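batch job 7 of whatever, protein = Glucose-6-phosphate 1-epimerase
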Amino acid sequence: MASASENIYVEHVKGVNGLDKVILREIRGWSAEVYLYGGQVTSWKNERREELLFLSSKALFQPPKPIRGGIPICFPQFGNLDSLEQHGFARNRLWSVDPDPPPCSSHTNSRAFIDLILRHSEEEAKIWSHRYELRLRVALGPAGDLMLTSRIRNTNTDGKSFTFTFAYHTYFFVTDISEVRVEGLETLDYLDNLQNRERFTEQGDAITFESEVSLKFLKQAYVFCLFNSNLYTLFYVYRSCW
């Protein structure tokens, strides 16, 4: 049973339509909300209670439909390059709280965190025959940083390898897309979905948005930032290891 002090940081509640939800809080006032359905972060608020993630007003919270907005988990497929449904099935599955998570050295200063786990099911075997174990830790740092850490393990009994793609499909909240720029992706190759997935190399110092943009970068930057000048909001996105 959780102690009173632990309940300050982690609270298990019922969310929309009775779906299980976990609320993470830091003492400075930052918070995040995570649904077990989809293992999905749906809210991240700063100490002024300002929402930093976008959640569509059309989000249904009705399985098997994915939750529209927040940070969907795309696995074992990002996009629709294979025979699976777009962005895979992890965002449509009910995850469990991980009762025995491995140590996570990158979150040692955080007390507001939850460990979730998703495993292969017999129902999935009809569309994807591989066995796996997908672990996810969602944590709030002492300064309100939102940290998602995932680990995917092959549990095929025959030891057969498999390939997959994975993404945190994050929806940031912005008020005016023309006031947003993304920096840190220069020299990286990408596929342009609006030009039949033709391959290009990013040349500019920043990506801005004057019309529809749909790019799939083939490698992940160690760090990139998204600046919303209209709200004076700066997001830094870092890549690190478990």
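notes: The first helix runs from residue 4 to 9.
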